[in-house]
User: Fold this.
Amino acid sequence: MSRLLLAIAAGALIASCAQTQGSQARLIETYWKAVELESKPVEVKAGAREPHLVLRAENSFANGYSGCNTFRGGYELEGSKLRFKALATTRMACLSDGSDVETRFHAALNATAEQRVAGETLELRDQDGKVRARFESRYMK
Assistant:
């Protein structure tokens, strides 16, 4: 009987792995961790909060953390076209670690004209098609 249970458990594990290999993250209601901003990798020190973005369905609302401050505001989405509007940020005094993540994060959001989700990766592109930011999905709803 224990071999049967082991075989069933192994089969379920294989099936779940096969389902996640071809998964496609959703743009909306997904936690997007910043991994690249303005062509530079985002490095997060152990124990530090990671820069991220979440697009909410309700009221086309965006919020997140840009490396020092939190932000929130609206966005417009039409097909692959995406534009952030009226983003407000907190005004925390932050010690510079030389990485300028906050500056690059906001520059990327302000330049965004379109988005592309491929698998578990989100790219924000400017009007010329240049990738300004790359994110990876972390917490799926």
In short: The radius of gyration is 18 Å. The mean pLDDT is 85.
